[in-house]
Amino acid sequence: MESSQKPILFHYSRSIYSHRVLWYLWLRGIEYDECIQPPYMPRPDLAALSINYRRIPIMAIGKDVYCDSRLIIEALEKLYPNSNLTPSSSANAGIGKLFESWCIDGGIFMNSIKVIPASKALLQDTKYLDDRQSLLGGKRISVEERAEGRPDGLAHLRQAFEMLESTFLADGRSWILGTERPSRADIDGVWPFEWIIAEPHMKNSLPEEFISERKFPLVYAWVKRFVDTVNAEKHKRPEPTTFDGPATKEQIMKPGAPIGTNIVDDDPLCLSHGDEVEVYPSDYGASHKTRGRLVGLTTSEVVICNDIGLHVHFPRWNYHIEKLKPTIASPLPKAFSVPQMRLIYHPQSSYTRKVFMLAIELGLEQAIALEKVVVCPIPFPGWSDNNADVAVFNPMAKIPCLVPEDVPDGIFDSRIICDYLEGLRSISPQKDKQYWQLHTLHACADGIMDAGILIIYERQIREKKGIKFDEWIEGQELKMTRALDRLETAASSGILPAPPDGPASADEVAVVCGVKFAERMGILSRDRRPKLSEWFSKWERRRSFQLTPPTQDWKGSNSVASTLKI
């Protein structure tokens, strides 16, 4: 059954793996929209979707997000059946798969990279080299290395040209499988050859004495024929709509459910539905791990649900799935007595998350009934519906607001609430240098959240009223960036301690919430702040973090009757 939602392709113009998907879309006549990405990290549009996957392309179809060009094309085959590109027999489909593996895993593309002329501006671009160093796990690309590897790359590529010239194309056929039109086998086989022959920035990459149209006329003709065909099909299709990051997220998060998935019961990894896992490539780009709950697993695909409710799909081949073990804080002693409390909250409020995460850390969550509200500084439909209700307990009509039995008029401001909760556990830290350093980071994290909320109001409310102030947004983003720099320094110097075996402090929890909020806003790039990211990744496994996602209501006590009409 054809998908009712138009695909959105995240790509950039020079991504040859993106070309594979674009060619498929054009040849099939599948309409799509796009969100153009920078060729280098960071990619805030994807960070805002809680996708840490490093490679391009990525395709979203509704709330399902597909990573890796191979899986994207497989998904399109299933969602848009009756393909005119599908090989006519299982044997021919197998040939296509072998071409796919030969070009991607068999070294054709990696040897193509070796022949990039050392004089090309790309190899002089420090930003590109820094980015690829991170992608390759610390290995630095250099002009000298490329020059040394070039002869070896040419030798391997010449073998590939000879194979095509003397076998599949030797009988004069137009396409790999002898079809009247290109098939998936052509897409799977042609792309690295098209890249080194036809791409303008690869001009002069192949010395004529080794590889040329004169030496391999059939291969060159096949590439030209393919390029002409896909360009002709492209010009028949309507231009895609290009969305920016916020508009893309709005499209993806429209009402609707991801497609159904299942988990095989005989997988060697012995994983179960709901397991917390990380998925990442096992060849390169392994430092960019995407985390979520396992919701689908077959012999060829793994699907996880991330913290904003998207189903993120990965192939199994050359991808690693790591099951995570949650860190569980120590529970509250049974003999400990606490008042019953109501927490007025919203799951998307990072301040509220800070408070409830701390309650979980302290073992207090079962004493707290949760009451969800929506509030806003000004009357705004859908945003300010509960302002008057919340103002009964907090005249600022802001959340979170805690209403304990022993303080029935309410406690507000997240830091004051944290003080109250820690007081219930009789936590009184020694106020030495380390305390004040960490406590100051609490204010730093709150500053990140303050600035982020102001950006949201500017983009979501003031823009709709025609009074958006771009310089104000830039100023708030700069504040968040400086704050993250401070947190990176703190993580590097040890001021931010590793998550404890027992309850964590409010200061640590605040930093966690501030960092996650910055990532959701697209401000945090984990590549740029490795020590902070390493510290934060440990927190992502913690129970208090996992029980407070911003995409769904949380679970507290149901024992307290609400007095709010909300």
Question: What does this protein look like?
Answer:
- It is a single chain.
- The radius of gyration is 27 Å and the shape is elongated.
- The protein has helices spanning 16-28, 44-47, 69-79, 90-104, 108-114, 126-135, 143-166, 184-198, 217-236, 245-252, 350-361, 387-391, 414-424, 433-462, 470-493, 506-520, 530-539, 543-546, and strands at residues 8-11, 33-36, 58-61, 64-67, 276-281, 290-297, 301-305, 311-315, 319-323, 341-345, 368-372, 401-404, 411-412.
- It is α+β, with helices and mostly antiparallel strands.
- Strand 6 (290-297) and strand 7 form a beta hairpin.
- Helices cover 42% and strands 11% of the residues.
- The longest helix has 30 residues, at 433-462.
- The chain has 18 helices and 13 strands.
- Residues 559-566 have low confidence and may be disordered.
- It starts with 7 loop residues before the first strand and ends in a 20-residue tail after the last helix.
Strand and helix map with partners:
Layout: E1 8-11, H1 16-28, E2 33-36, H2 44-47, E3 58-61, E4 64-67, H3 69-79, H4 90-104, H5 108-114, H6 126-135, H7 143-166, H8 184-198, H9 217-236, H10 245-252, E5 276-281, E6 290-297, E7 301-305, E8 311-315, E9 319-323, E10 341-345, H11 350-361, E11 368-372, H12 387-391, E12 401-404, E13 411-412, H13 414-424, H14 433-462, H15 470-493, H16 506-520, H17 530-539, H18 543-546
Parallel strand pairs: 1-2, 4-8, 10-11
Antiparallel strand pairs: 1-3, 3-4, 5-6, 5-9, 6-7, 7-8, 10-12, 12-13
Helix pairs in contact: 1-3, 1-8, 4-8, 5-7, 8-9, 11-13, 11-16, 14-15, 14-16, 15-17
